[in-house]
Amino acid sequence: MEPNLSVVSAPVGDLLIDRVSVLTNSGWLHDSRVQLSRGKIVAIGADADSRCKQQMDGEGGFLVPGIIDLHGDAFERHITPRAGTLFPLELALAANDASLVANGITTFFYSITDGFEPGPRSRATVRDILRTLEALGPDFGCQARVHIRHEKVNTDDHEELLDWIEQGRVHLLSLNDHLPRLDDPVAKERYLSGLRRRVSMEESETEGFLERLQDLRALGEQQIRELAHAAHRSGVSLASHDDHGPDDVTLNCSLGTAIAEFPMDAFTARLSQEAGIQVLMGAPNLVRGGSHVGAISVRDAIAENLVSILCSDYHYPSLFHAPFIIAELGLLPFEEAWKMVSEHPAKAAGLGDCKGQVAPGYDADLVLMKDLSGLPLAIKATIVSGVPVFRR
Fold first, then answer.
1. Is residue 332 within 8 Å of residue 338, measured between CB atoms?
2. Which H helix or E strand runs over 195?
3. Which tens digits make up the pLDDT trace of 152-186?
């Protein structure tokens, strides 16, 4: 049996965090305190026991629920920082873990591309990353979970992926279709520009490579239904990706999709919401002020109440910074904006009964900030399962 990725360093006794403003579901509790024990929040405010042997002085700072990132692939840049380079996974993933806790992320879904390309997005790489995560996960500061981004035309080794889901090695499954159709020159060139960054392949080979994959679409569609059934049986949340239009939303409903990642326009996002599907969008889009691939602006989408979850996508600091931007722009109060990086992703991933809130009985995954500047430098401590895993 493989190690359980949800296990982190063992909690060490009780801890009292004193002199803090605490963000609860009822709003801020100023000049308050929080008691932690055995990895859980056990008391807040006057109910907290001031006799705890271990105490952390919050120095008038702000304590919020830890960030839950359902979709992030910036770890790939630790593995392959330049095209054609490959670093040891142990080194790359350890460095990535340090980046996560320094940005207030306490639960991270490693979004591993189960793709059709050779190299860093191949099934062979997925196997290696999965083994490395399971070996190193108990030593990570951030709780590591696995998000498999399955490309529909990756039809090889289908039974292996089904087994991973049933064995509990996958915690979130998204169904992707990044294979460009050959009659769409814009999409084709956009895909090829990314392929050149990831894989060393002769230009003369790429056309035949894409042509061969087109023939796998029908089998891929059949296989994703089997994957969706396996996910539901195993309690794994299912996500779609880059949806565009009613047909995609109808398919998602038939598959039992819980999360729509990055719908391409407002119409599709609203259709997803009306179907009871949570809409996830990228924090970098919000921070930068627009999409880097021509999709809907996240700022506009939030203004239209079309987004419930934000993720780091490809840039961890943006996810920490995003709720502050939302409040600064007047789109939502900060207290509601923070739910987009904590409570809402927890619920969408089936973790809503134990993560995403500062409340008794919930996991002691917290971020202590000295101020509300919105910069990661304001983070004084990141706490996971009651253990301070990062302190400045």
1. no
2. helix 185-198
3. 999 999 999 999 999 999 999 999 998 888 777 87
